[in-house]
Amino acid sequence: MREVAILLDLFFYNWQVREEWLKWCKSIPTEELQAERVGGMGSILKNLIHVIDCELLWINYMLEEPYHYSEKDFIVNLEDVERYSLFTKNVTEHFLLNLPKDYEKKHIQISSKRGDTHFFTYGKIIRHIITHEIHHMGQLSIWSREVEVKPVSSDLIVRQYIKKDPF
């Protein structure tokens, strides 16, 4: 289960970076957080919501009883995003701590909007969630320079992120 600990470690890294971006957002006027931008999901706030949405969506695909965030359709400000992030983090962490031993063999079938059918292992989905977040945090770094505020550092090697090793 060492590989699960490594995956969990990367989630802790991502969550710490996300929390720092949420804190960073508190120094930015609301208008800038909601301003339409080129790339990503169109705005800083929408980018953060998208990352959290996708994490919960993919975890829910793997859960037998998916979690629904009842306030999802009412997210309008940074505080709402913070609550959604915490909810999703708790769901994901619980799932990862109880990940089946055969997670690299377990798979799910997904049908795309175009009607294509895909089969993904739990392991591939988990790795996708990790890299998807990193990708979108990079977009925030670009936009932070547009608003002339130093971006959050995502440098893993010098970061003292919280690491739990339950195995």
Which features does this protein show?
56% helix; 167 residues; two-stranded antiparallel ribbon; 5 helices; mainly alpha; Four Helix Bundle (Hemerythrin (Met), subunit A)
Can you characterise this structure?
The structure is a single chain. This protein is mostly helical. It has a single domain, classed as Four Helix Bundle (Hemerythrin (Met), subunit A) (Up-down Bundle), CATH 1.20.120.450. 56% of the residues lie in helices and 6% in strands. The protein is built from 5 helices and 2 strands; from the N terminus they run H-H-H-H-E-E-H. The chain has helices at 2-25, 30-34, 44-62, 78-97, 122-146, and strands spanning 107-111, 117-121. A two-stranded antiparallel ribbon has the order 1-2. Strand 1 and strand 2 (117-121) form a beta hairpin. Helix 1 (2-25) packs antiparallel against helix 4 and helix 1 runs parallel beside helix 5. The longest helix has 25 residues, at 122-146. It is globular and about 45 Å long. The mean pLDDT is 93.
